[in-house]
Design goal:
The protein is mainly β and 373 residues long. It is built from four helices and 22 strands. An eight-stranded antiparallel β-barrel has the order 14-15-16-17-18-20-21-22.
Length: 373
């Protein structure tokens, strides 16, 4: 059983979607034959990929996508376990306008796996156990935990009791899948004029790394630490009060018989780990030979929030058709509004094993005047 901390509306939305989907037809891959909004089509040669700036059913009428909102669980108290004196200390950090903030996300495990795709083929109990017990520690400041990703008690995943503001610890096991967390780092002004620079140390299983603040200003990396074992790191300097930034994550891939690929996932706010909505789209090669993707972003109630378009790269390793065959790459593009106005940018990485569906992880950033909704 996972930690239960999701808002009530997610459960209600999921129940409603099950009713909506009762009359929807699907093809053999489990992908809906068409989007629900009127005359939308899949057209890689259209400037918007065939998408229209219209509202949709919540989660695009996809019950599985709505259920996946529970994969990331917001933490009610990001400083749970601290003493009264320590809480006063971190409160002073948050109230000080000179405090610097950094958003940091770490995800570890098999990043190619998608639970609802049939890949990897073996059930979790037959996958090799990988131990990711670890910690995050700042040399100065406080760590505010925003959310945990796919922590499961039946696998022993849990947060460990917390003793100090600058450190959090966890126990994590993966079985062919992945876990992770999101935090905000609060770096108060150096009133003591200490010469040593502020650093963040990450331990996750056998992996260890020390980050400077300069590295955390714009961090976008994936590090392979073993077979089917990768650590994804995302970080940037942020202002939790006004910054318009966040994260993307979901399923990516296509079946052999599909003419185009599909992706679907969640749109997350960086400042509090809140689910802002869903995105869905398709990708492939257009008539000019370009590798392009198109998508649509809606809020959690289904209201239109933007169109997405850009490019992706495709790389591979292993022999096609073999169990170890893997496709992966990066994607990058723009987020535009109803009138074609530029709202922001997005980028990330994707990967999948064999011919099944995989995963994508990325970030979005709005322009200065882009509303957070």
């Amino acid at each position: 059983m996972r930690y239960a901390s999701q808002p009530t509306f997610l459960a209600l939305a999921t129940a409603a979607l099950l009713i909506v989907l009762a009359g929807c037809s699907e093809d053999g891959t489990g992908t809906p034959n068409a989007y629900d909004s009127g005359s939308q089509t899949i057209d890689l040669n259209d400037p918007y990929g065939g998408f229209l700036p219209t509202d949709e059913d919540p989660a695009f009428g996809d019950a599985t996508l709505a259920e996946r909102a529970g994969d990331e669980e917001r933490v009610a108290d990001g400083y749970a376990g601290l003493t009264v004196e320590q809480m006063e200390q971190v409160s002073s950090y948050e109230e000080d306008p000179r405090t610097e903030w950094y958003s940091f996300t770490a995800v570890w495990g098999n990043l190619s796996a998608d639970r609802n795709s049939g890949t990897p083929e073996d059930p979790p109990q037959q996958q090799e156990e990988v131990v990711w017990d670890g910690s995050l520690e700042l040399t100065r400041g406080g760590i505010k935990l925003l959310s945990i990703i796919l922590f499961e008690r039946e696998h022993g995943d849990r947060l460990l009791p917390r003793a100090v503001p600058e450190r959090i610890e966890w126990a994590s096991r993966t079985y062919g899948h992945y876990d992770g967390l999101r935090v905000l780092l609060a770096i108060p002004p150096d009133t003591a004029r200490v010469e040593d620079p502020v650093e963040l140390t990450l331990h996750a299983g056998d992996y260890e790394r020390v980050f400077t603040l300069a590295e955390l200003d714009s961090l976008h990396e994936e590090i392979e630490v073993g077979e089917n074992a990768t650590i994804s790191l995302r970080a940037f300097q942020a202002d939790p009060e006004v910054d318009v930034r966040g994260f993307l994550g979901g399923a990516w891939g296509k079946a052999v018989e599909d003419s185009v690929g599909h992706f679907r996932g969640r749109w997350i706010a960086a400042r509090d780990g809140r689910l802002m909505g869903w995105l869905r789209g398709h990708y492939g090669v257009d008539e000019a030979g370009e590798q392009v993707f198109f998508g649509k972003y809606i809020d959690w109630s289904g209201r239109f929030r933007g169109l997405l378009r850009g490019h992706y790269e495709l790389m591979s390793s292993g022999e096609p058709g073999s169990p170890g065959y893997r496709e992966y790459g990066e994607f990058w593009g723009e987020w535009i509004g109803r009138q074609g106005q530029a709202l922001g940018r997005l980028n990330g990485t994707w990967s999948r094993r064999g011919n099944g569906r995989g995963r994508f992880h990325g970030m979005w950033r709005g322009n200065v005047l882009t509303p957070m909704f």
